[in-house]
Design goal:
The chain is an alpha/beta fold. The chain has helices at about 25-40, 70-80, 95-105, 110, 130-140, 155-160, 170-190; strands spanning about 5, 10, 15-20, 45-50, 85-90, 95, 115-120, 145-155. The chain has a single domain (about 15-190), classed as Rossmann fold.
């Protein structure tokens, strides 16, 4: 049942940026679960799949006016959001280059005072703690409000079934909780109560 779906007659909008370009990505699957948690409490949701955007490398052009249209489309969607979920695989002890580049194409105007939740996946047993820690630093630098709850999914290739569902119900609940909390805190922040 939705509990926090609107502030000032505007629905809370939560977007998720997927830092994986792989077909059948476990990062994508994890973000879908987190978004379902946000939707359960009344958020309008959207998963931003960076495979569908034609971006350039940050610094490739001198002036932002030279950005391809998809950069502006991405920036507009993130700027419009009240809450943002960032999902990444952990590669070589950090978050993915595709997500780093997408974040580098944005500035404070897209992230400042936005509520951010973090989810990481890893092929190994150690999980994605390094990637999440680095995303927390980047998000704070962009002046976002990062929720303390995050989720690291270890051995991701074994953690999900063929339909993108997690085998572990407790882990599913934790991933959904990230989406719910981003929605809840975004609603509270935008209502002026915090």
């Amino acid at each position: 049942m939705p509990i926090l779906s609107q502030v000032n007659n505007e629905s809370i909008n939560v977007v998720a940026l997927c830092g994986s370009l792989r077909q059948g990505s476990t990062t994508h699957a994890a973000l879908q679960i987190a978004l379902s948690g946000a939707e359960e409490v009344g958020a309008d949701i959207e998963l931003i799949d960076l495979r569908e955007y034609r971006l350039i490398f940050h610094g490739e052009v001198v002036d932002e006016s030279e950005y391809p249209p998809d950069v502006f489309k991405l920036k507009k969607k993130v700027k419009r959001a009240h809450g943002i979920l960032l999902g990444t695989p952990e590669y070589h002890g950090s978050f993915s280059g595709v997500l780093k580049n997408a974040l580098d194409l944005m500035w404070f105007e897209e992230f400042e005072n936005k509520v951010v939740g973090l989810i990481g996946v890893s092929g190994g047993k150690m999980g994605a703690g390094n990637a999440i820690s680095m995303l927390r630093t980047v998000s704070a630098t962009l002046r976002a409000l990062v929720i303390p709850t995050d989720v690291s999914i270890a051995q991701a290739s074994e953690a999900f079934d063929e339909n993108g569902n997690l085998h572990d119900k407790e882990l599913t609940d934790r991933v959904k909780a990230v989406g719910r909390q981003v929605t809840k805190y975004a609603a509270l922040y935008n209502s002026g109560k915090i």
